[in-house]
Predict the 3D structure of the following.
Amino acid sequence: MLAELRGINEECGVFGIWGNEDAAQITYYGLHALQHRGQEGAGIATKNGKGLQVIKGEGLVNEVFSGDKIEGLKGRSAIGQVRYTTEDGRGIENVQPLVFRSTTGSMAIAHNGNLVNARDLKEHLEKQGSIFQTTSDTEVLAHLIKRSSGSLTQRDRVKKALAILKGAFAFVLLTEEGLMVAQDPNGLRPLSLGKLGDAWVVASETCAFDIIGAEHIRSVEPGELLIINDKGLQSERFAPAADRAICSMEYVYFSRPDSDIDDINIHMARKRCGKQLAREVHIDADVVTGVPDSSISAAIGFSEESGIPYELGLIKNRYVGRTFIQPSQALREKGVKMKLSPVHQVVNGKRVVMVDDSIVRGTTSRRIVSLLKEAGATEVHVVIASPPLVSPCYYGVDISTDSELIATGRSVEEVRELIGADSLTFLSIEGMLNAMGRSPQMKNCGQCLACFTGEYPTDIYSDTAMPHEKEIVR
């Protein structure tokens, strides 16, 4: 479903490269490929002979780097980020990469994810004299690194700081000595390693490698720290790997269909989810259609398995400006017609199966069902290629309260009535895991299922930091 209309968004996408004369330009193209992960800000930092330089701003990649701005970024290494911001994270000061300068050297950091103990760590760091310039979790890492013992090497300071962090994070850090890449111990956010000639590249999704012509080598491992410099690549651990728990919504919605996560292609996984849905429910209907764009793969799978013809019943207007991306529910209601149009000839007089990837607040689902019925659909059967979202996410998806989730505390029948569908079916958790090629055992299945089950792979911190954290940041 359309993130800008329903309000479910992922924090951002990151990219990094070491060892290419056109580092900034390559990063620019890499961020273009990751634009779906964040449309509210973009930035690139490079390392040249004089240190680190950065250009960033609010807007899309091509807006931030309009004209010849990219030509001002020189150097053989770079990191970049595209950013989606939550309400309390808006403002140019939070756009990344963040650059920190000190007498002992400069460092640029970009981050994808969310630290569940960020508030606690900030409070302890502030008591020790730290002053924060942003509301971003990313700044916490810089302060932790700087406050580590001066006798440690830079990589040991980074490892010590990373070990304190809890939650979801994929970091890229650029210093004057090298590029460092870190993945949280559960691997909650995607991060992949690639090669472009003699240069090393990293990105949130493998689709960024395709656009720059890089070879995908592997995923960055949970708890792994990569150190990349002119001597090559080294792999170290800053924490033992915990149970692998990649965010399920990466497969369901966030990632581009041409990306691979854990060697699982997103398009094929979504298609298999659609096929599994068709096995779990029988619907007498005339046509299957998907909500553009992330539901098309599942709709094709549902059609193939059920034998009901697939048709393009909904058209997405790709030329509506970002002016219409509005946070309020009232404006989202109006925005649906700006973004989606039914194909009357396809749905008029037909029993329609509408396939979608998920339902969050239900606002957009209700409007799309209404649009299809206004276009003449005699029945609209909604099938969802994921289980019901019933619990908040604390790992970088902006669903932070139960009140935002229509399925919390309601039966499927109650949700069906609210969205006005003739029937409503969600994919089972076991069916989703089987479709992803995972173990149907929910524990240690390789994916985070917290938004479906309420069982979180990490501790969710409250107001008080753990004792060992207080000790480390002292």
